[in-house]
Amino acid sequence: MYIASVSSTIKFHEFPKGEVVYNYHPGNSEGPIRTISWSKDGNWLSVVPYSGPTEIVSVKGELRLLKTINEITEPTSSCFQNTTKKYIGIGTKGGSVLVYDIKSQNVKKRFSSAAGPVKHIAFTAKDTHCAVACKKDVLVYNNVTNSPPARLAVPRSTNVTCLKTNMLKRNFVMAGSDEGVLVVWDINVNSQVFCLEAHQAPVNSLAFSPVNRDLVLTAGADRHFCFYDIIDNKRVGHVTVDNCVTAVDFSPDGVYFITACQNGQMLTYDSRNINQPVHSVHAHNSSIKQVAFQRAETNQNASTYSISTSSSMSNRRRSSTRSNRNSYTEQTDLSGWLALQPVSQNDGTVYSNDSKDSFFAALGIDKHLAEGSIKAESNPVVQEAQKSALVTSGVCAVEAEGSPMAVRKPFSSTPKVPSTSKGEAAAEAPSSSEIKAIVRESFNEELKHVLRDYVNEGLAKLTNDLKEAFEFENARSVYQLRATLTEIHVANLRDFFKMEEHLKELQEEVRSLQDQLHNLCPNF
């Protein structure tokens, strides 16, 4: 696996040792490279040089130039799509946002132009949206419906410095600013999920954890890199360094992360001890602008990149829950945050086991509600049904404190008989197998009733919640539509009044010309 470090040239380092395998200098450009982006399978790299067209470079087998995109002039940023390497998004100095088809060598789609030069461009996990960072705002284009873009502003900021999308939570977009503000939006509902003054200086780089959708890594010009929990809205890790950190990125397994410095140094950290780097490489003689881990092959799973396979990590994965994560405050060991077991999908994208769709979350609904199974060992409703059924069938059930329910020896539920008829009573008494069958049948019937009531009550509550949520959404949509129509009507009236004024001015000019003509030619 390679790490690409970007300055005036691109160096490909072997991970984790940091040895340089390739050194690439694009075109005739002499300035710092603007951006790079790995393709879906990690075999191609898009390069936007300081000047000149975008280049596609292959690192499979050997380093070679595959394609120069001369059709798009003055590119400033590029990004491969996440579901295919056929298409690449390119932003230009003039504000154009284009999707280029590498195979057919033409522009497939043109989005509406941005207000200024495109500084950063990124696609969401499923390529449904394209996020673009301009001078002040972030524009989110819908790649499916081609509707007008949503405009997201970074609070208290005048310049957006960096932009990232979340591969686990496909509707999360993150940006940083010159004022040190870090903000995360949910583009499904166009609202802020997290907003905080993360640094006392410009935010230089951002990264979402590839295994924990709530954890982000930031680097600032104040010589700090920090970890933030965007759900709990707090900082969970903080390290001061000697040189300004200019770029960061996570390894695909989330255990390691890279920081690049202004002096050309590249440091590798282990998330279980973020105070000291495990590797240090002097990569460039000038400031490093970007670092990026090579993306995973499509047919590989996330375990290919799992460097730490210790039993302690496995135990932490099993015991990692939301409740114990709240105890991590300013910790130097972030393994509890990064221990969620990744799941590899068919398209090579890695998702977290606990990821949820924010559309349901915004409505207050967990879409995994119907996927859970009811277990008799842990569900109090089922335990109550067990006790009720056992008592009804004549079995004494005793529940020990802090332990599972234990069943003691059953007492006799048959009437006492005189001693003179012991043989007859023994012949008529039911056998142990019959008693077990009766107990089992009674328990099953009681359990069915309890579970039916439980499911019906849950469905009724879910139906009411959905009804209220959708009524609220419909009301909000109607309000927004009315507001839009009102704005259009007001704009039309304003234009009408301007046209009236302009017409009056023209009429006055015509009268003036007629008077002048009459004075010059009275007999005309």
UniProtKB/TrEMBL annotation:
Species this protein is from:
Phyllotreta striolata (Striped flea beetle)
InterPro entries with a match to the protein in the record = NEDD1_Spindle_Assembly (IPR052818), TIF_beta_prop-like (IPR013979), WD40/YVTN_repeat-like_dom_sf (IPR015943), WD40_repeat_dom_sf (IPR036322), WD40_rpt (IPR001680)
Where are stretches of biased composition, namely Polar residues?
411-422
Q: Which GO terms describe its cellular component?
A: centriole; centrosome; ciliary basal body; cytoplasm; spindle pole
Q: Coiled-coil segments, which residues?
A: 496-523
Q: What's the name of the protein? A: Translation initiation factor beta propellor-like domain-containing protein
Name the Gene Ontology biological process terms: microtubule nucleation; mitotic cell cycle
Start and stop residues of the WD repeats? 196-238
Q: Identify the residues that the record assigns to the Translation initiation factor beta propellor-like domain, covering every copy.
A: 127-262
**Is the keyword Iron in the record?**
no
